[in-house]
Design a protein that fits this description.
alpha/beta, Rossmann fold, 2 domains, 12 helices, 40% helix, binds adenosine-5'-diphosphate
């Protein structure tokens, strides 16, 4: 089975709310996809994450309808601790996820809860620390670390569980651009190297777009766009997305409006440079 997340007509309303937080969501995500989810604040992105890891309906009160299947498990009927083994969650504020006296303890915590034998725990902690390049931080307390380092530790602490799906809910919003870039590169490498399915919620599209195979835009609880980012961003009528577009995409769209059509949508400044240079050469304005 290739599908790791399958939603059919999924709707959810929090018990203390009048409106649906998510409405009629249909979604099929295959193993190894790198999915970028974006949309205005309050549109339902975090709610979607909570369904994927079972916090909804098991910890948040409300009405969940439709069919939500994650790794073959029906989310409504599966205890959260079962899903938690396979679905790693990373949030915006790593310090809320880290509460032990050392990074090493932090990494071992989840495995200890599963009663994994100690030698195996030590092996995995070393392995993941090396992978994430945080070996030198193992003895430190989480509060001694920078925001970027804390976020690496938070990601490492879910990686030791060998998750099949990694869900990151705005993991870089509190980081400076450089740490943010570093974290995104790391996540991308995990996706490529281990085939971990990645679902990332991110507003700064320019950080992630170039790496994603799929862009999902949610507005008011509904999926508005879902597909190959280049195809979506070439479309004429994506007004709802306008605000989120990276400058390179905006320029592509502005040029198209005045009759200059570049051969492809540049998703990053470096792609823009390449595409523009190519076009100027084609027009013999540059050698
Ligand atoms: N715990 C909650 N109880 C009640 N309503 C909530 C809760 N969490 C979120 N909501 C509401 O559900 C909608 C979707 O919120 P959320 O999924 O957090 O959006 P996003 O992550 O895109 O900002 C919003 O209207 C929000 O106010
Ligand atoms: Mg949110």
């Amino acid at each position: 089975m290739n599908s790791v997340i399958y939603f059919r007509d999924v709707s959810f309303k929090y018990s203390n709310s009048e409106q649906f937080a998510l409405k009629d969501i249909n979604l099929n995500i295959n193993k190894g996809e790198f999915v970028l989810i974006t949309g205005p604040s309050g549109c339902g992105k975090s709610t979607l994450c909570r369904i994927i890891n079972g916090l909804i309906p098991h910890f948040y009160g409300g009405t969940l309808t439709g069919e939500a299947i994650v790794l073959g498990y029906d989310v409504s009927r599966t205890p959260t601790y079962v899903l938690a083994r396979y679905v790693g969650m990373v949030f915006q504020n790593p310090e809320n996820q880290l509460f032990l006296s050392s990074v090493e303890k932090e990494l071992a915590f989840g495995l200890e809860n599963l009663s994994i034998p100690k030698p195996e725990i030590e092996k995995r902690v070393q392995e993941v620390a090396q992978l994430m390049n945080i070996e030198t931080l193992l003895d430190k307390a989480p509060y001694e670390l920078s925001g970027g380092q804390q976020q690496k530790v938070a990601i490492a602490s879910v990686l030791v569980m060998y998750p099949k799906i990694l869900v990151l809910d705005e993991p870089t919003s509190n980081l400076d651009p450089r740490s943010a870039m570093e974290i995104i590169d790391l996540i991308f490498r995990l996706n490529k190297k281990f085939g971990i399915t990645v679902i990332i919620i991110e507003h700064r599209l320019e950080l992630v777009l170039e790496k994603t195979t799929r862009l999902i835009f949610i507005n008011k609880g509904r999926i508005i766009y879902d597909g190959d980012p280049r195809k979506i961003l070439k479309k004429e009528d994506i007004d709802e997305l306008e605000f989120y577009l990276p400058k390179s995409v905006k320029l592509y769209r502005d040029l198209k409006r005045i009759g200059i059509e570049l051969p492809d949508v540049p998703l990053s400044p470096s792609e823009l440079a390449t595409v523009l240079r190519g076009e100027l050469k084609r027009r013999r304005l540059l050698k």
